[in-house]
Write a structure and sequence with these properties.
It is built from ten helices and ten strands. The chain is of the alpha/beta class and 239 residues long. The protein has a domain of 126 residues: Rossmann fold (3-Layer(aba) Sandwich). A six-stranded mixed beta sheet has the order 6-7-8-3-9-10, sandwiched between helices. The protein has a four-stranded antiparallel beta sheet with strand order 2-1-4-5, covered by helices on one side. The longest helix has 16 residues. The radius of gyration is 17 Å and the shape is globular. The mean pLDDT is 92.
Length: 239
């Protein structure tokens, strides 16, 4: 019996900026319904990997396949239409659109899901967004903007949701709310790739972890394996 192809299959990818190479043969696979964390210190290639996956950066070698199609040379909008959505670092909400306008403007059941992420389902995960639905993006707190950025991505009904620095700059109580919401998404079967520095919280969320060091995958495994080998933390994750 053949093994099904991963939803995302990144093989031997090299990429960089001009003459500066950042990624050196990165392999990354994510199965449908899986939550994977991408770990590593700042400057080790996490953001470059994400840019390559979404088509914002063309790899110089290797191949990326998503949803059964080679996406290495596809433009970003075509990759998005296959069912890939990103919550970017910095959130990038529109200051002059209301919460509700954000969610309506981006709504699209691209993947034809039966249990689609419509506006009421998103409000069910993020009650605060419903309370603030008529407020402009510029009137929201940082935590509310992050909830909106996640909700906006979900409104496209993605097959894969990528979160770059999921809780960066948020107050502890808001971070906990974001972790709770991500747990809800996992329970709903959402496939997720997440970058975040709070490794202890990722261990309770992610099925697998991938560590990058200087643009190379140096380790991958499940939470039990990562928790058992704290030398990995000292070698690759702590400053």
């Amino acid at each position: 019996m053949s093994t099904p192809e991963p939803l995302l299959n990144c093989q031997a990818v090299q990429a960089g900026y001009g003459a500066s190479q950042v990624l050196f043969g990165v392999d990354l696979q994510i199965a449908a319904g899986e939550v994977v964390s991408l770990l590593g210190r700042n400057g080790m290639g996490k953001s470059t990997t994400i840019k390559t996956l979404v088509g914002a950066l063309r790899p110089t070698a290797g191949q990326v396949r998503f949803a059964g199609q080679a996406t290495t040379r596809m433009p970003t909008d075509a990759i998005a239409r296959l069912g890939l959505a990103i919550v970017p670092e910095g959130r990038h909400v529109f200051p002059n659109l209301s919460v509700r306008e954000h969610l309506v403007a981006f709504a699209d059941n691209r993947s034809g899901l039966r249990d689609a992420w419509d506006i009421e389902r998103i409000y069910g995960v993020f009650p605060r967004l419903k309370e603030r639905q008529h407020h402009l993006g510029s009137q929201l707190s940082g935590g509310e903007q992050q909830m909106l950025a996640i909700g906006r991505a979900l409104s496209t009904n993605p097959r894969l949701l990528i979160l770059d620095e999921a809780t960066e700059g948020l107050a502890p109580v808001i971070r906990e709310e974001i972790w709770r919401c991500l747990g809800t998404l996992k329970a709903a079967g959402q496939t997720i790739l997440v970058v975040d520095k709070y490794v202890h919280r990722l261990m309770g969320l992610a099925d697998r972890h991938v560590i990058l060091e200087r643009g190379r995958v140096v380790w991958q495994g499940d939470s039990d394996a990562l928790n058992a080998d704290r030398s990995l933390w000292a070698r690759y994750l702590t400053v």
